[in-house]
Amino acid sequence: MNLTVAPPLDHIMTLGVLALDDLHVRERDSELDQPLAEAAGRLRQGADVEPHLAATRSMYRKLGIDPTKTRPSSEALLRRVKKGEGLPRVNTLVDICNWCSAEFQLPYGLYDREKLQGDVRLRVGQDGEEYPGIRKDAVHLEGRPTLVDQAGPFGNPTSDSARSMVTPATTRAILVIFVPREVPRTSIERVLDVTAERALRFAHGAEAFRRIIAAS
Fold first, then answer.
1. Could you report how far apart the first and last alpha carbons of the chain are, in Å?
2. Do the strands 173-180 and 108-112 form a parallel or antiparallel pair, or are they unpaired?
3. CA 28/CA 115 separation, integer angstroms
4. What are 173's strand-pairing partners?
5. Which of 58, 86, 143, 159 gets the most CB atoms within 10 Å of its CB?
6. Burial of residue 127 (number of CB atoms within 10 Å: 0-12, 13-18, 19+)
7. DSSP summary character for residue 49
8. Are 174 and 111 in contact (CB under 8 A)?
9. SS3 string of 57-115?
10. In the CATH hierarchy, which top-level class contains the domain 3-213?
11. CB-CB contact of 107 with 177 (8 Å)
């Protein structure tokens, strides 16, 4: 799978990409109960939040998106936790992505690779583009950063599509982390390391590949 970022997005964001194979995704894993509860408690107290929240908001503004109206998925998770709720539970791999996204304050996209077709490109959404969201109405993509494969749009930093969502039947997945351009490569590598460790610990499987995709 070839992944690219089209102008002008290549000068606004970097993609951290992690592909996983031979996964065992469960609807609920009790082994995650304590780590997620502890993570939510630390986040509620203001601990463990990486200094990417402001950079992610700035990234949205550079894209022409008001982050107070259309929030990055990472900030929406943090706001939920600070209101006293726990991190949402969907399935083991989604739960891990939400955990990492809330801590690092970077938007994550998670996709079933068997449901994607051909190469993937991040570009600006075109007039009238949309897709059915996960448990949501249509997600409108015009003017927004949009992941596209040969079948059309399927993901963005705020809300992903139902077409490519990960379920307990998923065995091959790809994680895409939408990172502000100014975040250094060493920080992205750390995010990928932590994400991979947690994913393989709780969803098993093996790492297929990882990439950091940035403008040259």
1. 20
2. antiparallel
3. 22
4. 20, 112
5. 159
6. exposed
7. -
8. yes
9. HHHHHHCCCCCCCCCCHHHHHHHHHHCCCCCCCCCHHHHHHHHHHHHHCCCEEEEEHHH
10. alpha beta
11. yes
> Is the model's pLDDT at 46 over the cut of 90?
no
Torsion of CA 160, 34, 56, 139, to 10 degrees: 20
The SS3 assignment for 193 reads helix
Buried b / exposed e over 182-204, threshold 16 CB at 10 Å, is ebeeebbeebbeebbebbeebbe
Ramachandran angles phi, psi of 182, nearest 5°:
-80, -10
- Eight-class DSSP state of 185: H
Task: Give CA–CA dist 105/55, Å, rounded.
Answer: 9
How far apart, in whole angstroms, are the C-alpha atoms of residue 144 and residue 107? 14
> How far is residue 22's CA from residue 2's CA, in Å, rounded to a whole number?
20
Helix (H, G, I), strand (E, B) or coil at 5: strand
Q: What is the pLDDT of residue 39?
A: 94
Distances (CA, A) of 156 to 45, 109, 176: 29, 7, 9
Please report the sign of the dihedral spanned by the C-alpha atoms of residue 32, residue 167, residue 88, residue 14: positive
Euclidean distance between CA atoms 63 and 72, whole angstroms: 12
Q: Which residue has the tokens 């993609």?
A: 15
What would the two tokens of residue 149 be? Answer: 């494969």
Strand order in the sheet with 108-112: 108-112, 173-180, 13-21, 206-213
Rg (CA), the chain: 16
What is the rounded average pLDDT for all residues in the chain?
Answer: 94
